[in-house]
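Researcher: Quick test of sequence recovery. Tokens follow.
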């Protein structure tokens, strides 16, 4: 991650900071607690099935960025809310993720019209 990027974050929790690793949701539950935000207001960006399971286990929405080697995985079958090959090339911004949730409520689909 690097110190410069880490210094820009409100919270940074690494695998060494929790007693259970993914797919256990502890890392995401801990992040929500430290941020003092309900998990239903969180969107996790993940790139693996293990991370997806952890995010969903924490009660959070999950956006998957997949690679050529993981493109065939059934992320939607495991509960992913959206998947895209790459955030920037798909036009994903914080506003495209959170804007509809702010305007229409937390149950709103994320990345409608953008996701695969």
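Model:
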């Amino acid at each position: 991650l690097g110190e410069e990027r880490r210094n820009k974050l409100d919270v940074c929790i690494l695998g060494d900071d929790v007693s259970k690793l993914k797919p256990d949701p502890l890392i995401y539950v801990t992040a929500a607690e430290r941020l003092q935000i309900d998990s239903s207001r969180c969107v996790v960006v993940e790139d693996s099935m293990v991370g997806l399971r952890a995010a969903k286990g924490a009660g959070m929405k999950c956006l998957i960025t997949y690679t050529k080697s993981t493109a065939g995985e059934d992320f939607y079958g495991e509960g992913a809310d959206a998947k895209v090959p790459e955030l920037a090339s798909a036009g994903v911004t914080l506003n495209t993720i959170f804007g509809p949730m702010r305007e229409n409520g937390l149950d709103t689909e994320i990345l409608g019209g953008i996701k695969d």
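The beta strands are 43-46, 61-65, 82-84.
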